[in-house]
Every structure is written in C-alpha cells, then in structure tokens.
From TrEMBL, chain A:
Organism name: Xanthobacter tagetidis
Pfam families in the cross-refs: LUD_dom
Domain LUD positions: 125-223
Stretches assigned to coiled coil: none
Name of the protein: Lactate utilization protein
TrEMBL record, chain B:
InterPro entries, alphabetized: Cys_rich_dom (IPR004017)
Domain (Cysteine-rich): residue spans on this chain: 17-97, 145-229
Protein name (record): (Fe-S)-binding protein
GO cellular component: cytosol
The organism's place on the tree of life at top rank: Bacteria
One family name in Pfam for this protein: CCG
UniProtKB/TrEMBL annotation, chain C:
Pfam families noted in UniProt: Fer4_8 (PF13183), LUD_dom (PF02589), LutB_C (PF11870)
This protein's record includes keyword Membrane: no
Designated name of the protein: Lactate utilization protein
GO terms, molecular function: 4 iron, 4 sulfur cluster binding; metal ion binding
Domain of life: Bacteria
Keywords: 4Fe-4S, Electron transport, Iron, Iron-sulfur, Metal-binding, Repeat, Transport
Gene3D superfamilies for the chain: Alpha-helical ferredoxin, NagB/RpiA/CoA transferase-like
Domain 4Fe-4S ferredoxin-type, chain residue ranges per copy: 306-337
First and last residue of the signal peptide: none
A single GO BP: lactate metabolic process
Keyword Chaperone: no
Amino acid sequence: MTSSRDTVMASIRRALGVTSQEAPRRFEVEERIARHPRGVLPERAQLPPDERIALFETMARAADASLDRLATRDEVPSAIAAYLRARNLPSSILRGADPRLADLPWQREPNLDVWIGPSDGRQLVGLSHAYAGVAESGTLVLLSGPDNPSTLNLLPDHHLVVIDAADVAADYESVWDRVRVLFGPGVLPRTVNWITGPSRSADIEQTLLLGAHGPRSLHILLVG
Amino acid sequence: MHPASPTETDAGKTPRVGLFCTCLVDTLRPSVGFAAAKLLEEAGCEVDVPRQTCCGQPAFNSGDRATSRALAEQVIVAFEGYDYVVAPSGSCAGMIKAHYPELFVGDPDWMGRVDRFCAKVFELVSFLVDVRGVARVAAAYEGTVTYHDSCSGLRELGVKRQPRALLATVDGLSLVEMGEADTCCGFGGTFCVKYPQVSDAIVGKKADHIDATGAGTLLAGDLGCLMNMAGKLQRRGSPVRARHVAEVLAGMGDGPAIGEPAPSGKA
Amino acid sequence: MSVEITSPAFKQNVAHALDDVNLQTALAKVGPGFISRRLGAADKMPEFEALRDSARDIKNHTLAHLDLYMERFEAKVKEMGGHVHFAVDAAEARDIVTDICRRLGAKTVTKGKTMISEEIGLNDHLAARGIEPVETDLGEYLIQIRGEAPSHIIAPAIHLTKDQVEADFRRVHADLPPERDLSEPTSLLAEARGKLRQRFLAADVGVTGANFLVAETGTSIIVTNEGNGDLTQTLPKAHVVLASIEKLVPTLEDVSQLLRVLARSATGQEMSVYTTFSTGPRRAGDADGPGEYHVVILDNGRSGMLAGQLREMLRCIRCGACMNHCPVYHAIGGHAYGWVYPGPMGAVLTPSLIGIEKGANLPNASTFCGRCEEVCPVRIPLPKLMRHWREKEFERHLTPAPQRYGLGVWGFFARRGWLYRPATRLAMGALALLGRTRGRFSSLPLAGGWTKYRDFPAPEGDTFQAQWRKRKERETLARAEAAAARGDAA
C-alpha cells in the first residue's frame, strides 16, 4: 500500500516535473542550508554599539515594553523591587535556574521572595534572562532549556527580562549566527521565543488592548 | 514613472499620434475625444483617429482569450504605424500596455512586435506631462473639483501626480482631495453588471467621499468610472457634476456634464 | 465533514451581508485602520520593497525545490524527536489528529488560530468524537461560541461588534454575575482571559497552525500577538502542528526575511509580539514544554497547483493584506465568500481547493482594481490568477449563459469594425434621441443591473469616430476650397 507520504511526495514531484534525484537540485538545496545566505538587512540597525542599543530601547518602548537601563548586573534586584513597589505588586517573583540570574546579589533585597521553577499560572511576576536582543524591532530572544522554562514568558501577568547590552544585535540574522555556534548547525532548542512587547489583541472591533493571554506588561532590565 | 520613449520623433519632428478613443468615448461622450485631440495638438502632436473598435478588455477580463487576442491584433495593426498611441483612459491604455504581451506569450511571430507597440502606448494625461513635457494648460474652469484616481491608470501606469499637476494650472480651479481617492469606485467593467449589488455598495461609499468634499465637480481620467460615479451621484440627487479630466484641461468644460441634457435645440 | 461550502450562493450571501447592520458597522472599521497601519509600517522601512522582492524569491526558490526541502524538514523533525504525518486530504488530516488525541486519552484540545483546521473542519470532527476543541485566539473563541466560521484569515471575528460580543459572553459565561459591567472592550478581554486561562491549564493536546516550517532545523513557527498559541503548544502533553505543504522555507535567514514583511503587511506592526520557533518535544531536563511534537503536513490539492500558473498562489503567507485593501471585501465581509478563505487570496485559492464549479463566483467578484497585488508582500499577481480562473471557466463553458451570449454578440461586432461602427452609430443615435430631455436614463432594457442603482448617461449623439471623420472631411474640403481660392486669385 502506498503511504500518504509517498502519495504527497509523488504528487509534488510530478507537478514540478522532477525526480528528487537531480544532482544540481540537491546541491543547490544543500548549499542553501549550509550557507544560509542573508537577504536584505535593514540599514536602520547597522549602527555602532551605543546607537544600536539606543535603537533597541526606542523600538522596545514603541512596542509598549517598559525598560530600565542599569549600569551593572548588581542593580537588577533593586530595580525589580522598585518595579514591584511602583505597581503595588507583592514582593515575590518566579525565575528559572539560569546561573546568570542565580548569580545576582539577591541578598540586597531581603524582602523580595525569589522562587525558582516553571510557572503554573499562579505567579504574578516572572523573571527571565534573554539570550539576545534585536535592535531593529526591539525584540527579545529567549531560548528554552532546563534553566529557562518557557512558561515563565507566558503565564505571569508581568514578565521581567534581563538582557546584557552586549547581547543586543542589530538584526535577527546576527542572533542566528550566535545560536548556531551555541547549538551547532541545524539545531535549535525546543523553543526560541521572539518577544516584542506585551501580549495584545485587537479582535474586538480592532481596538488594541494589552494583556490578552500572555503578560500584560513586559519590563526589560537592560544591563550595561 | 514612464520616461519618454527615445524615438526619433523627439528630435523636433512633429510626432504622429494615433488617438485610441475607447469604446465608451466613441459611443457615449465624443466630446472627450475632441478634448483629447485638442490637448494633443496643443502639445505639438499631429492627431489621427484610425478606424477602431475596442481594446478587448471586456473579453480579456471575462476569460475569453481568443477574442481578446483577435482584438489585440486588430488594434496593433491599426495603430502600429504611429509614433505614439494615446488613449483618454488608463483602463484601455493599461490593457494594451500591461496585458497585450500576455496574449502573445510563446508566439515568436508577434512577441517583439507587441513589445515595440506597447512601448509607445500611453494614457493621455501622463503622455502630455511625462512624454511631451507639458507643464501647464491654457484653460479656465471656475469652481472646486475633486479627482478620483482610476485603478488601472494609477496602478498599472502610475497616473497620479500628472493630472493634479496640470489641474493646478487651470485658471479659477481649485482641487480638494476626497478621502480614499485611490480606492476603486466599484465599476470594474463587467463586474458592475455581474455583481450590481456589490458594485453599488462600493460606489455608494465613493459617492459619500465625493459629496463630503463639497466640490462642485468630480473629475477622473476614465469614462467608465465616471459614468458609474456620476450615475450614482445623480440617482441620489447629489449636485456634483462629473466630467472627464481632459474636458477641463482642454478648456472644454462648459458643455453638459456627464448625464446632463444638451441645451435645448441641440441633440 | 469539512466546512460547508456556500460559494455557489455568493449572490444570496452578498444580499444578506449588505442588509446586515451589525456586519456593516463592523466592516466600516476594516479598511481605514488596516490600510493606514500597513502604509505607516512600510514607510518606516526603506527596504520594504526590496524585502518584498526577497520574500517572493525565497518562496519561489522553495516551491521549485519543495520535494527536497520537504525531505530535509521531515528528517530534521524526526532527528529532534518529533513526528511528521502526511495527509493527502482533509479526511486524512482529521484522522491523524483524532488518533493522536485518542491515544493520549484527550478530553479537551486547546487550539491556536489555524486556518488549516478550518479547512479540514477539525472542530466538528473532534466534537463528534467526544473531544472538546477550545479555540483560544480571542477572535476564534468569539466565533466558536457563536458557532460561526472566521470571516478573515488574521482577524476571524472582524465581522462582529462589541455589543454582539457582550451579548454572547452574557449568554455563554452564565456562571458569572449578570450585573457585571462588560461595556468596555477591556472588560470583555479580561473575561475571556480568565475563562481561557482555565482551559489552557486543563488541556490534554494543543493544536496550532504554522506560519512557516523551516527545513534547516525541522522547526515550526507561529506568529501571534495574544500569546495564546504559545500557551496552547507549551502546556499540554502533545503539540500538534497543522501545516500545508507550502509553508516550508529553507533556512532561519529565509524565514527572518519573510517575518519582516508578514507583520508589517498584516497589522502594520514592526514585528508581532510573539514569534515562536518550536523544534521537537520537550528536551531532557526541560521543566516545561509538550511531551510529544507532531507535524501534520496537508496537501489537499495544493501539490497540483505547483504545475502551472497557480504555483504563484502558494507563495501566500496569509497576512490578510489583500482582503484588508479589497473594496469588495470591505463591502461584503468574509462570510459571503462562502468558504474558509475570503478576499482576493480566497478568490484564487478556493477554486483551486474546492473546484471552479463551486468556486466560480469568487474570481469573478473582483473589480480588478489591483490593490491586492499592490500590497501583497510576496507579490502574488492576484488579479492575473483570478483571470486565470475566469479563463478556465470560459474554456469549460461554465460562464453563465447570458454573460457568455452578451460577450459573444459584442465580440462579433468588435471584431468586425465595418459592422461595429454603423451599428454603434445607429444605436447611439437612437439612445441619444430617447435621452435627449433628461440627459440620462433611470432604466434601460438589458441594463437593469446598472440602472437599478444608478443612472446611465444618454449618448451625446453621433459617435466620436463618425464626427471626427466628418470634421476631417470638412477640413479637407475647406483646405481645398482655400487652395482653389488662392489658385483663382493667382
């Protein structure tokens, strides 16, 4: 019996007039995947580091994220505490086990409860560490893994994200290059989240409202 | 958008223009044809009107390729001897320029010939401005007008700034832009009779935009769209009068507007 | 069963749509918002036109090598611990999903927005087998509780007003206090969020669509603003991706190009809020994520489109810009099109998937204004492809008889100038005489479609060609007389 797979593949080949065995076609496809050529890159983000980081900040704010620029990582716990106080939120956050978060001087905010693990939807505030930022659109790039549960990005009402200014790239393509170095060619973690601003919907009469299913607020702690 | 074709005629010689008058102008509103001829002559062209019928667009858009192709051949044969072919319609000029080549794909006997032909086909107002370098017209028209961008002219031929540039030089005329001037009026050739209800809904919105300008006159570069909009405005009892832009540019905007009776005594 | 097809009853659908006050109220907001937002986004990106070219070229390249990229994609998904299932048609796709749900003992299935699910009629199929599908995209949720189909591919409930939504919530969320205030969209959103949050956490299987599939990495991508797709695919035991064959792209760089034009064309955003790349199931050590990852690849007639002109339609990335800019869509909304895909893209795709016999109205119901092609991020020549269907219809003698007859008579005359010119002169002369007093007609035989809604101008009189020739003859005569007079004088 012919499988559906074979039927579909045969139909594609028939319509294209190919056998899939053509050496030049196979070569072209292998080459494209191996070389993964970049296409058109927007000029707007091809900037020296300082301006690139400034663009990231502008674009993230334009996407309705809020942002604190911090000089050093040591300031992160206090910035978080201040964020919670300013919004009358309980002094409690949930984060992943990521060492970049674990190493922060949490002792500076003794009243801040820091829980570790994935979210089950009961926590108001989640904290993640971004792998990279993209200046072009103010986008955060987060990678899932044992220390970085993706539920943290989605279930809490407030999503706080730490990002190193040095990790702000001009464009998505620069981030893919880094990811390939980290995981090897052709491999991604289970989930790569690009996040550009807080959750929203315009499904009721096209009125844009923040906080649809995901976080109502996205707060970026940009370090460095 | 479309630079002048560098032909030998540009070097001072009077270009011979074949006026493709279009079916609608031919049958319903010949004054547009005369206005077009006058504008072309004033722009230094010698105008001729060879015997013609239709560009074939109704057949083409109805899926009848054989008839479209036959009519295309007929048009090419009738007009290819001229330096330029000009139509007071973005729709018909667009049909020829943008779509004739599709009708001859894979026919080596015709392909080069069709491409050469299409290169010298133009919509009237863009021809005046872009090819003949006309920067102003000697015409007067008292009142406020609004201008509708017909779809084919706008999107297939890039006709947008040219009519506005020339209208700005008409004495006494002021242009007020309508909302969504570049949205379709709902004419769509055979569409308006195949789906009259939808067409009516679209032209209804267009008429709202026209009325909202407070302009006394509606202008456009295509008689099909104009008839559609004028017919809707008149049915609603709107006071807005509709004319082809060529009539006003040629200083011939004093005759009856579209759908108005001729002064008594004249047929 | 698949979604009911009412495309053959397009004209009745149109009449209904034009009379629907709620629909017309909702539609009035469609054009201006979407159009200005897209334009704003395009203006802010100087490379936008170059990106559109790039997007088109990537899709063309992929489609020309679809067999090979498909092999690569399948191999990568397997390598990363996922499963790929091929479905020749809708029935197979439904069965694949049902089998996965049954094996996992699923009672509820949460769903991200997927048009493929609409195409294959998945919800009714699951419900009939005791598995409850829960739509989680707010728009999809709204229409699910109303028992309707989406009327737009990215804004499924765009045909509804706020008041309708409020009435539906009061009807369906009967456990909530009846005196609660739902007058503002924010309160409606908050209520939906609360209701659906419970469903996300309780779901056994999550079904999403895919905006793209990446061959390089075996990845599926969803793009959302709400975050519902992420919750749908992250929380349950299994993530099932429904995707049609043309969703493939070669590499992460290629998909980055396409993502740059997708949101800008769709909603005018620089980037949608959540762009999520999913590769295989939860990894060893992961604290969350689905235990299983399945990709269902649906053909359902698309492979045949690769053979001819319609291949261009397979570039479509479902941004909705064509319908957002379509005057016909603005007038009648999406439901009138009578199947899953409305607007210009539907006018081309629907006949390809359900047959031109049933879908013939759709490619005909276009003014060919060209605005869809003007804004299409992958430069699909939509009017040309609609014309392709009109040609097929004409070739197969499916064109309605009066139209075909009318065209035939007109064509007969237009091809014979020697008959056309006297005939038009005669006809115009007669009409001019008839319409002389008013200058226009409010009814005309054979033109009822026109004159039911608008006046028709009376012709001025003789045809332009005849008048031109008369004038030329007079001029020639005058010149000859002048020459003769000069001759006499000399």
